[in-house]
Write a structure and sequence with these properties.
Elements: H1 2-13, H2 17-30, H3 36-56, H4 62-78, H5 83-99, H6 106-123, H7 131-143, H8 147-159, H9 165-178, H10 188-202
Length: 209
C-alpha cells in the first residue's frame, strides 16, 4: 500500500487524475479505515478533487469541492491526531462558503480550526513540533482570521529544519489556490514570506550554514 499510495500521489502531481483515483481507492477499499495508508489515501483522494476544482478555475463546480471535503473529513475522522486532513476540510469548506455553496458552514469550519489549534497546543506539551503539523497550525489561524498569530506560527514553521521544499511549496499553493490569501489584506505578507521561502529552497539556500 505505501508504494501504491506514493505512486497515486505522483500521478496527482502529473494530473493523471483518473488513474490516481483508481490507485488510491484500491487502498481505501482493501485496508481497514484506521490503517495509516488508508487514511493517507483517503486524504489524497480529497486532494485530488480539490486540485481538479482549482485547476478547472470554475467556482461553480460544486461537486468537486464537495467530494474533496467529504474525503478529507473521512480521513480526519479515522485519524483524530492527524491534522492535515482536518485542516484541509476546514480550508475547502471556507472556500466553498465564499463561493456560496449552501452546504458549506463557515462557523462549523472555524470551530474545527479552533479545535485543531487546541489539539496541537496539547500535543506540543509532550512532543516536539513536526513541520507538517506546524503548517496546519498556521493554516488554522488563517481560517480564524487571526493573521498576527498566523505570522508568529509561520516563523516557527519556516525555522523548523524539517520544513523542506515540498512542505513549503504545498503550503504556498494551498494559501494561493484554495484560501486565496493573496486577496486578503491581512494575508498578503504571509503569502510573500512563503514565496520567499519557496524561492530560497529552489535556490538551495534554505538552512545553509
Amino acid at each position: 500500500p505505501i508504494v501504491r499510495r506514493q505512486f497515486g500521489q505522483a500521478l496527482i502531481e502529473q494530473k493523471n487524475y483518473e488513474r490516481a483515483l483508481s490507485m488510491l481507492q484500491s487502498i481505501v477499499d482493501e485496508c481497514p479505515p484506521t490503517d495509516g495508508e488508508a487514511i493517507e489515501a483517503q486524504g489524497l483522494i480529497g486532494r485530488l478533487f480539490k486540485q481538479r476544482y482549482v485547476d478547472g478555475n470554475r467556482n461553480r463546480d460544486e461537486e468537486l469541492l464537495n467530494q474533496a471535503v467529504d474525503h478529507y473529513r473521512k480521513a480526519a475522522e479515522n485519524a483524530p491526531n492527524n491534522y492535515w486532513p482536518a485542516i484541509n476540510d476546514v480550508s475547502c469548506t471556507l472556500r466553498a462558503n465564499r463561493v456560496g455553496f449552501s452546504w458549506a458552514d463557515a462557523d462549523d469550519a472555524r470551530t474545527r480550526a479552533k479545535a485543531i489549534v487546541e489539539g496541537l497546543d496539547r500535543l506540543w506539551t509532550r512532543k516536539r513540533p513536526q513541520a507538517w503539523d506546524q503548517a496546519s497550525y498556521v493554516q488554522a489561524f488563517v481560517a480564524l482570521n487571526e493573521f498576527e498569530r498566523a505570522e508568529h506560527a509561520l516563523s516557527d514553521y519556516l525555522s523548523n529544519r524539517g520544513t523542506d521544499s515540498f512542505e513549503v511549496s504545498s503550503t504556498y499553493r494551498q494559501f494561493i489556490e484554495v484560501l486565496q490569501l493573496d486577496r486578503e489584506q491581512g494575508g498578503r505578507r504571509i503569502v510573500d514570506r512563503l514565496w520567499n521561502a519557496v524561492d530560497e529552497h529552489r535556490s538551495g539556500g534554505a538552512f545553509s550554514d
